[in-house]
Amino acid sequence: MRQTAFERITLDCLSLDGVTGLVSDRCARPTAPPPADYCLTVTGGNPLLLRALLEEHSEADAPSAPRPAEPSALHSPPQAAPPRPVVGGRFYQSVLACLSRTETAIRQTAGALAVLGGAARADLLPQLLGASPASVTRGLRALEATGLTTSGRFRHPVAEAAALDALDPSRRAHLHRRAAALQHHDGAAPRDVARHLLAARHAAGPWAVSVLRDAAEQSLAQDDVASAVSCLELAYGACVRERERPEIRIRLAAAFGRTNIAVAEEHLADLVATLREGELTGHQTALLVPLLVNHGRLGEAREAMDRLNAADDARGLCADGGFPMAAPWPSTAHLAARRDPAARRDPGTRRDPADKPFLPRQSGAPQPRPEDGRGQQPTAALWALPGNGTSEAAAHAAEQVLRSSPLTDSTLVLLVNAVRILARTGRYDTADIWCHRLLGEATRRRCPGWQAHLLAVRAELSLCRGLLADAKECAQRALTHVPGHSRSVFAGGPLACQVLACTAMGRYDEATQLLSHPVPEALFHSVYGLGYLRARGHFHLAMNRLPAAVRDFLTAGRVAREWGLDHPVLLPWRTDAAEAFLRLGETKRADQLLTEQLVSPHSGNPYVRGTALRLRAQTAAPAERLRLLSEAVSDLQSSGDRLALARALADLGAAYHSRNEPVRASATVRRAWQLAKECGAQALCDSILPSRGTKDRGPDGRAAATEALLSESEMRVATLAAGGNTNREIAGRLCVTVSTVEQHLTRVYRKLNITRRRELPTRLRHLADQAN
């Protein structure tokens, strides 16, 4: 090539016939040749590119072992899928080689064309390159002659990627910055401009930040959350206007709510800190409030609302003195108004001594203000029971919302709570249909954060129906959609559901392990903290830690009242606490709570009424007890909660025993045990029929070691005592005297080598594990 007689001859690219011949020659069996017309489209007939494409196809399609030919293959040429070149493959390397042999101006033209991509226009290329139109035209013709481009576009994305990679990184970033400015000036769509800003990792100037924010909104509208997050993160880092940065972070938190709830909560925590430092404007605070409400952080939302009402620039941001998102339910528009000061609890009202502060207070946060139920915090309306307080009105409002609201960032929690209300009011089938529908949409739209919310409410739905294993599984699946859930406030909801399920299933070690996981302090200032406190209280109840159970139940009730969320349909803390008080022997306090529950506006709910009647029956006279339990069974049967029904049936069976009606007692107890068994509530099974529950755990009497140690009657007494029942309760359930129970327990303590009642659960589980 260096000889003086050397002369360069330019050859045209291969025609379709030439490509067909080369494909046939180079692709022998067993590798089927790819379609020649496709190869011509990708390579433009360039022999160098064509050979590389065929080699890459042969390597990808080569069989690992000889395969017998099918009968049809003996009579017709085999068909092969079009080759799919990849970045870094032989075709990609050949494009790089082809570009390296061209002039610098042609390479630069190829790079600029790749930077502009599908938006390339003849008038933009000269401006981007800073070259004359004639020079750019020559470069485009040269690229087309090599077969890399056609009509001003690269023939294949891999060729475009190679042209980009052929550029020096600093040159590539420079071209992207210029392309962004040119396209923005030209009125291109924000997403097209943002693509260049992201590629350059540079966004200088307010216009760039504005473009990135607009592009993020467009990406979210198209469910491209990753692009939206990238745009917002770049905008946040590039923004020099301190007053604008919190708004960008609010949008970041909302975007992460779709994909990573824990990260969204980290942004919210920082924003609340900024709020307390007085760095948020009224407008920014107005944007923050609904986000805090959606994440269930009602304590912080109320604090933000107070600051918003006091802000100088808050006028016009709040309609009627409340927050625009405060009343999402169709029938609760009146709740958006400011609370009437007269609705607060009278300062002279005596507090229950046990109703003492327990939640850790956040530094800088105002102390909660008590509510008496007549007023409701505007920020809590989203989590409240809609309608006039009846289950029918609440269910109607929930269905109305589900039928009329699309699934979006701002309606997610509204829809989830609508499903929750359908479940808590006994509309299980309807709730399941809507939950399945919404979960399918969240899955299709690739929003794991949304999936976590919907799986969590499905777990609650299963728990309400007494499907303990399903509830535990759904709660665990919800947590798998929350990376880093150990630091997440939201995770307290599914975690509470797991604890309740494990406790009811008698898996106390597993429940202990779940409760040993550290949780963020902010959990106890959110609605998820209410459920967590209740679940922990029930675990304490099962472990016979009655004062701790009372403390958790009363704390949950106090916070619910302060937030205006004192609805037994959503949080039956009164019956929870009453059960603990009954086991402590404090019947007067238990009766007071049960009376409050039964005279409340929500007492018409079958679950609420049935549970309260079952507990009230424990202190009633024998005849009255039978009537109350019969009504409780009727109510709980219509509620659909099979686990609660099993508990009521067990108590009814014991009542029949005490009235010397063995036939009815036996049938009722068997029904209760079967229901508990179907629910997977082993702890309740053991409580109802201790010997039968133990034997049923495995075939061939695998509990023989325990039974050999304890007699059947001793085993029954020990199991009931381990479940937290008092000696009097055990005597009533087994139809024996209290003295007999005491004698049995004395022998049990001696045989198990224990001295305290609280050692019974651990010792019995240890023996059962040895037997199994």
TrEMBL record:
Coiled coil: none annotated. Residues 58-86, 329-384 are annotated as: Disordered. Residues 703-768 form the HTH luxR-type domain. Residues 337-355 have a biased composition (Basic and acidic residues). GO terms for biological process: regulation of DNA-templated transcription. The keyword DNA-binding applies. SUPFAM superfamilies: C-terminal effector domain of the bipartite response regulators, TPR-like. It comes from the Bacteria. Keywords: DNA-binding. GO terms for molecular function: DNA binding. InterPro entries: Sig_transdc_resp-reg_C-effctor (IPR016032), TPR-like_helical_dom_sf (IPR011990), Tscrpt_reg_LuxR_C (IPR000792), WalR-like (IPR039420), WH-like_DNA-bd_sf (IPR036388). The keyword DNA-binding applies. PANTHER family: TWO-COMPONENT RESPONSE REGULATOR. This is HTH luxR-type domain-containing protein. It comes from Streptomyces avermitilis. The lineage of its organism: Bacteria, Bacillati, Actinomycetota, Actinomycetes, Kitasatosporales.
